[in-house]
Amino acid sequence: MTPLLITVGTALVYLASFETLALSQEAETIYSRCLVCMVLFTVTRLAVTLRNSGRLFVRLSEAHARAEAMADELRRGEARFRAIFDRAPIGIQIADMEGYLVDANKAAERMLGYDPGELQGRHWTEVTHPDNVAEEDRLDELLLARDIEQYEIEERQIRKDGSLIWTQQTVTEVWDQDGQAQFGIALVEDVTEHKAMIQELQEREASFRLLFADNPHPMWVYDIATLSFCEVNDTAVRLYGYSREEFLAMRITDIRPAQWIPDMMRGVAMHRVQSSTCSHTQHRLKDGSVIDVEVATHSLHFAGRDAVLVLAQNITERKNFENQLKHQALHDPLTGLPNRTLLNDRLEQVILAARRNATSLALLLMDLDGFKDVNDTFGHHHGDLLLEQVGLRLCRVLQASDTVARLGGDEFAIILPATDEVGSTQAVRRIIASFKEQFVVESRSLHVDASVGIALYPSHGDDASTLLRRADVAMYVAKRAGDDRRYAVYTAEQDLHTPEKLALIGELRQAIEEEHLFLQYQPKVDLRTGATSHVEALVRWRHARRGMIPPDQFVCLAEETGMIKSLTLCVLGQALQQCQRWGRAGFNISVAVNLSARNLRDPQLPSLVMDLLQHHDVPATSLGIEITESTLMGDPAQAMLVLTELHDMGVRIAIDDFGTGYSSLAYLRRLPVDEIKIDRSFVMEMASDENDATIVQSVIDLGHNLDLQVVAEGVENQASLEMLATCGCDQVQGYYLARPMAAADLEGWLALDRVAATA
Ligand code: C2E
Ligand code: CA
Ligand code: CA
Prior knowledge:
The structure is a single chain. By secondary structure, the chain is α+β, with helices and mostly antiparallel strands. The protein folds into 5 domains: 2-86; 88-190, 2-Layer Sandwich (Beta-Lactamase); 196-314, PAS domain (Beta-Lactamase, 2-Layer Sandwich); 321-497, Reverse transcriptase/Diguanylate cyclase domain (Alpha-Beta Plaits, 2-Layer Sandwich); 517-758, Alpha-Beta Barrel (TIM Barrel), CATH 3.20.20.450. Helix content is 50%, strand content 23%. The strands form 5 sheets. Strands 18-19-21-22-23-24-25-26 form an 8-stranded mixed barrel, surrounded by 5 helices. Strands 2-1-5-4-3 form a 5-stranded antiparallel β-sheet, with helices on both faces. A 5-stranded antiparallel β-sheet has the order 7-6-10-9-8, sandwiched between helices. The protein starts with a helix and ends with a helix. Bound molecules: ligand C2E and calcium ion (CA) (2 copies).
């Protein structure tokens, strides 16, 4: 535009001067031509300029459009950036060079508990834990000096409500083209939970170290599939004497004495069904010595394997101490031989074994003749030394499986397992012969003799106290005889002649006559219904001086002296009278009475029973009798007659103590029997003894095959009760359900039972 204006201006100036100058014609022409040329020039220039201006205009509008597009693009970019910025799951904080936050995304705001926009304008130190400020400052300096491009820091940030969170931050700086720092950007991640987890893991590891690695008891982990050790602690290494490497190359069987391996394998198998176990066992150390340990185990997964964690507590000292105490309690301090308590215990064990294996055994009681003289002449010291030597000599003459015990004073007892009369008399002769050799006590030769009484199981008694009593009677007889034999085998006749026995017989006779015997009743519970309709009558004797005497101790006396008939009639009379009372009180109870072998040999018994039934107005079906299996086997033909008669009357017949008498199946089939009672020795431990459980099951099956009711007596625990129910047993009797009790108590018990049944 400017050249155009100048040209127009210049032309106007010339036109004005042309008027005022009044030039010559030629000059005028020249001037006019010049003017024309100028005008043409100017017009041309104007045209050119105009054309150029049009192009410029076009260019200008293109540039404008481009700028608009760029601005649009920028706006879209900004929107995209904002969307990403705000929706980013990670916190982003942007701070200016003064350290003030100029922007923070939503995640950052949420993380610190601020409302939108509230973070802006706050200084970064306001949201940073003071402990972390110095470190961040130092790193910022490195960043600004461009020594590093970015840094990472784990630090605590302060939330709006003052609580702290742990964050993991990555911090970078944004630079402009001139290399000037613009702002710092921090990408912030909340790692509080992760941190807590790590801390928990660390704490767990610390506890594990404390519990396992630093445990004062030996511990290890073994692989349940290979039984090899996977890990052991230091205490195990120290105590067992193997290095860790040696341990890890071994299997757990390597530290068990051979006899414990079956037990251990059972323990391992238990882990498939039970996560924790506790047991006592023994371990062998590297030096070969054996220690007692109490082992607690727990199943776990270890390094991807099914494993067992074991804690072994070395209880060798405790065990030794216990053993010492036990030894003292069960042994005679002078001779070191078992004392009376241990003898009783062993005797019971041996009786049980003999009962199972249908063998006999002998119990010997020995007393020294002339011992009192030694004591009186040479003093107690010599007496004691002599007793020690007697003990040693007895052990020398007898076998290792025999038990030699000192009962006190100069009395010794000997158990000979699996021995009959012939075997026991041979052993006794050996003992007596050995006493021919003098004893030497402190270089003094002494002589004593021995008198021995022998009692045999089962012919003379089937429990420990009876055998002891009878061996004592036999010894008394041997002593009194004073002959060279010096021993006696028990016979019933001898028994009656001990002064004590004679007195007791008299008292029993009186007790029967004066009805000092009374009955207790023990319920038999139906396993299917839980109801009780049968009870067993058990006789008791309350002795004026001796207190309660159990039937085991006087029924045999009555049998030996012929008093059993009156005893049985007395019991039958009381039982039927009670039965009648119960009937009147509304209890439909049938009562079972125990009969002895002798009763079955009495052909009058059935008619006597009939009289009693009529007298008490009780139907025969409310009476039962129990006869032991061994009684039946004693005289089967006679027993059969009496039993058949009773059975025909309607009296219920049960075979008692079944399983101990080895009656033949064929015979059982012919007997008029309604019920068999499994002997309590099989029932009491059936829950823990597989053999017993098998016997019980077979007796139940046998009974059912013969159409008999099966009763289990001696049920002492819930486990046996449940097993019996599973085995299909019909009735149960035992301390677990009810002990024998007085008639009055039984009524209360039955009433309770009825309430429970209807509840
Ligand atoms: P039995 O006929 O086998 O009687 C069962 C015995 O086992 C009873 O002993 C009873 O108290 C006991 N008993 C019951 N439940 C359990 C239990 O759960 N565990 C254990 N360990 N024992 C249990 P009791 O009363 O001392 O009778 C012993 C034996 O005396 C009787 O054995 C029976 O043979 C005989 N007897 C009892 N009363 C008479 C009687 O009137 N006449 C005759 N001839 N013998 C009798
Ligand atoms: Ca019985
Ligand atoms: Ca029995």
